[in-house]
Write a structure and sequence with these properties.
This protein is of the alpha+beta class. Strand 14 (about 360-365) and strand 15 form a beta hairpin. It starts with 14 loop residues before the first helix and ends in a 10-residue tail after the last helix.
């Protein structure tokens, strides 16, 4: 899963109370300030500002970071964090906070402790791809099947290319099966993983951004095929070793020489560590690295592809890698070749986020300023994301502030806002399997406020309130009280997509088709389940009433069987709904459940879904029989209501793709 580039931050935290809170929480502040450098920037004064901008020096940076990170650790229940900053080819700050092992009170050490940067691993894949482009062995615009020993399915006759893999526009739906392995015995070789879980291509290539771990793993396999080396061997020989990243590895499990320095993985505050996380599409997220090793990688990206005398890419290749490759929505940020690129406000920032169950990380580069920053937090996801969001944005705003131009609200604000009103879903989603349920439960809603501003339920402030946006350019909105942008892409008068620079350009929100809008599907589903639950509850009540009043149902043998079956059917439907809810809840609790552990339950749910068809038929036949034989209006209404609810359940079984018999999801 990617994490967005930083989006919002509070003012700098006073370090005095932070130190007190940190000491009280028992967290050490281990730190090796690698290079206590003199000021690396001149004093800049923002036009019209009352005070000069602080110098970016090692002491000032350390004081600022010390004022933010320990408090975030104590407040969010994080075990520890690593922060690394480089500038102009030198390490300006490399510091560990908190613990790598809480039980043993082992401090986090930026020079020695390994963390899991997650999807930042992909930047190594894209760097390696450009190496092969330099050698003339890889064509970014060729059909990827040219390099494979199996076939990636076309989309309407259109192949996928490496450039599309790098910009996440190859058209793949989300692929979740085997994303993480439950244990070492469940780890799959890269080729077997790719062949076994190939997702459907649901978008025209080059048209819709949809972030894809599968696409990145596929790119790495292409590199493996071209180089005739396993990916781990290639990346070590051509990136890690040349950059002296001696304490970094993509290998799983870690080599014995590195395993002892791996930080324990904590997914909850105060909880026991979880096992070392095993990634099946390994090149997309399996990197383990120290903060200082990540510094070496950032320096190489900033210093024309080199680190000292070593060069892993030629300058022109690096420029191609970092330059704008696609801009899905005009007015918003772009995608470079694998790097997320923020270039619509403030200094140009490129980078990538990464997340596992335990680690939340972000790497950003400011090429024009020679600056790179890497942060990785170990602990609860929300706290880790808040830490790297606040820290990175805070550093950029502190040392490279840009005053946004004042723009009036356009007179078209309400007219254009009303065009956007409706339900939207993330382009990064599954559509051919049962994970399509997540689209129903996770849609976003756009509304117009009384003051002609927009609210999008998916985009919220750090305290959880929906952001409000006012139109400052045609179909471009600026956050009220902030600097984030929101924009829409239209085809004529039809809205195709909406997004914000709060999220990477590797995905967007797109309108939900009316036939499966959660606006009516969720209420109808709740109503159908309520009707069936009420029918099940009232059945024994009615039986007791008849027994008390000594009134018998005068039914034929056939009608009695229909009535009994029409009672059992809603019970099965209720069990079906509860089972799918349990499956989704288990997946939400741990992505490791996607490693096949839930497959037997998925099969049971699919069988219950098949049975719901028979249930609906029986319910309709029973309603027909009751309508013909019973003079009681209430009995007729109840039978028809149950039949309608059962038919609705069949609609959901198929509309939510729960009957896709394949266990690839």
């Amino acid at each position: 899963m990617p994490t967005p580039l930083p989006d919002a931050i509070a003012d700098a935290v006073d370090p005095a109370p932070v130190a007190q809170a940190t000491a009280a929480a028992g967290y050490p502040v281990e730190a090796s300030l690698v290079r206590d450098n003199e000021a690396l920037s001149e004093i800049l004064v923002e036009p019209g500002a009352a005070a000069p901008i602080p110098m970016l020096s090692a002491p000032d940076l350390e004081a600022y970071v010390d004022g933010l990170v320990p408090l975030a650790i104590a407040r969010g229940g994080l075990a520890g964090a690593v922060v690394v900053v480089v500038r102009d080819g030198q390490v300006l700050l490399a510091k560990g906070y908190g613990y790598a092992d809480v039980e043993k009170r082992k401090p986090m050490d930026a020079a020695r402790t390994l963390v899991r940067p997650g999807s930042i691993s992909k930047l190594f894949v894209w760097t390696a791809a450009m190496q092969l482009v330099e050698q003339g062995k890889l064509d970014l615009d060729a059909d990827v099947n040219r390099y494979l020993d199996f076939k990636i399915r076309d989309y309407a006759g259109q192949p996928a290319t490496m450039r599309q893999l790098m910009t996440h526009t190859a058209g793949f739906e989300e692929s979740a099966k085997h994303l993480f392995a439950a244990d070492e015995s469940r780890l799959l070789p890269l080729d077997r993983y790719l062949k076994q879980v190939q997702p459907e291509r649901v978008y025209a290539p080059g048209k819709v951004p949809a972030y894809s771990n599968y696409g990145a793993a596929l790119a790495a396999y292409i590199l493996q095929r071209i180089s005739k080396q396993p990916f781990d061997d290639y990346i070590e020989a051509n990136v890690l070793v040349p950059l002296r990243m001696r304490q970094s590895s993509f290998r799983q499990p870690l080599p014995k020489g590195l395993a002892g320095d791996m930080a324990k993985s904590y997914s909850s505050a105060g909880g026991a560590p979880i096992p070392f996380e095993l990634v099946n599409p390994a090149p997309a997220g399996s990197l383990s690295a120290t903060g200082l090793d990540m510094a070496r990688f950032m320096i190489a990206q900033l210093d024309e592809g080199g680190a000292g005398a070593v060069r892993i890419l030629q300058p022109h290749s690096l420029q191609t890698l970092h330059a704008t490759a696609s801009r899905p929505i005009p007015g918003l940020d772009a995608m470079a070749l694998g790097f997320f690129r923020r270039d619509t406000r403030g200094p140009v920032v490129i980078g990538h986020g990464g997340a596992t169950e335990a680690f939340q990380s972000n790497l950003v580069l400011l090429p024009a300023h020679g600056l790179g920053l890497f942060v990785s937090a170990d602990g609860p996801g929300s706290a880790g994301r808040a830490l790297h969001r606040d820290l990175i944005k805070g550093v950029i705003q502190r040392y490279f502030p840009v005053r946004a131009a004042q723009q009036p609200t356009l007179p078209t604000a309400r007219l254009h806002a009303e065009q956007l009103v409706g339900r939207y879903e993330n382009s990064r989603a599954s559509s051919s399997n049962f994970l399509a349920i997540a689209r129903l439960l996770g849609s976003a809603k756009i509304e117009v406020n009384d003051d002609d501003t927009l609210s999008v339920s998916a985009f919220r402030t750090p305290d959880g309130r929906p952001k409000r946006w006012r139109e400052v350019e045609p179909y471009v909105w600026r956050e009220v009280g902030g600097d984030s942008l929101l924009a829409a892409k239209l085809d004529g008068n039809q809205v195709i997509a909406v997004s914000s620079d709060d999220v990477p350009a590797a995905m967007w929100l797109q309108p939900v088709p009316g036939w499966r809008s959660p606006g009516w599907m969720l209420p109808l589903l709740c109503l159908a389940l309520a009707v069936q639950a009420l029918a099940v509850l009232l059945w024994p009540v009615a039986a007791l009433v008849r027994r008390h009043t000594q009134r018998r149902l005068l039914l034929s043998e056939r009608d009695r069987r229909l009535r009994l079956l029409s009672f059992l059917g809603p019970i099965g439907n209720l069990v079906l709904a509860l089972l799918w809810l349990w499956i989704i809840t288990r997946i939400d609790a741990s992505v490791r459940m996607l490693d096949g552990a839930l497959d037997p339950w998925v099969r049971v749910a699919q069988l219950l879904g098949l049975a719901s068809v028979a249930t609906a038929v029986v319910a309709v036949l029973n309603a027909r029989a009751v309508w013909r034989s019973s003079p009681q209006r209430l009995r007729r209404v109840c039978a028809i209501a149950v039949a309608a609810a059962c038919v609705a359940m069949v609609w959901y079984v198929f509309a939510l793709r729960t009957m896709s018999w394949s266990l690839v999801y």
